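Example 3.2
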Amino acid sequence: MGKLAGVVWDDTLLGYDMGADHPLNPVRLDLTMGLARALGVLEGVEPIRPAPATEQEVLRVHSAEYIAAVKAAPESPLGVGHGLGTMDNPVFPHMHEAASLVLGSSLAAAELLLAGETDRVVNIGGGLHHAMRDEAAGFCVYNDCVAAIDRLLDRGVERVAYVDTDVHHGDGVQVAFYDDPRVLTISLHQHPATLWPGTGYARELGVGDAYGTSVNLPLPPGTTDEHWLRAFHAVVPSLLRAFQPQALVTQCGVDTHRDDPLAHLGLTVDGHRAIYQALRELAVEHGGRWLAVGGGGYQLRRVVPRSWTHLLATALDRDIPVRTELPSDWAQRLGVPDMTDGGGTSFLPWSGGGGDPVDMAVLGTRRAVFPLHGLDPDDPRD
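Structure, written as tokens:
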């Protein structure tokens, strides 16, 4: 890589707090940073402290009416609409300020890439990919992923690829760029017939000049590491080579884990580590610029801190051996002894078959989108 990866973080990001009983508990971020420091991953790294996005910066992504509703919500939590004040998106004090800081954190990450200070940046506090222009959704108030991509495009990056590995469809980002041919969005997620938000079918391809730049790979419940990785490698690398992005933005939600309480895929921490390593290789292949944000993940202690410590380590080229034991106090705090779940990450490459449910999903996505990029959907070499 050459330059040390950038890490965007400040404890003030813990202020995006929807309540102690809400699944998106900021303790998962606090534990991640603490574990990464305890394992030496962040040695010599001075995290970049983000600033809240200005109102003009938020307006690039959201409407003035919606921003006004977010600001007003703490004073009238049941009467502002726009998806606010629901069980998923409860109103909390200083919500506009906290959400603006999350958006600002991903803008700071984008600026690091644009300045050439590093080729890689990780912002585990970002990843709020469900927020729409006029509505909160799925625990997300402002969409920092859209903001970061918009900033890259605005500053001269001609093509951005966005890869979303969260268990839920990256719907807010897809909608934002559904008609923009400069952005390739790829989302791998649990099948929308079985999980919220109910979108992300292979037939959702974009419109106008952007037809073919929205890619969805819906996977059946129970998909394991080996099957997930086979599906990823059967779709993502070929499309990136056809699209030739100048920057890679990835949403790295870890609610794909087999222990996550809100979904039903079967990945492990080992699978997550393999995903990050694959993304790193793809970033290198396409010029090196990689912006990684967090996202979902609701097994707050056993899963998220270990998975995102692996993400930080991967971006910094400080890969942690899976059998690495945790310091005794951390083993007690997280309830696990080491950095592995014993998951299997070896997989058979996709060979064109369609009998297995995951292979059928792969074939459906390839047949929907590959011809639009000059690729043969039935040829495993493409």
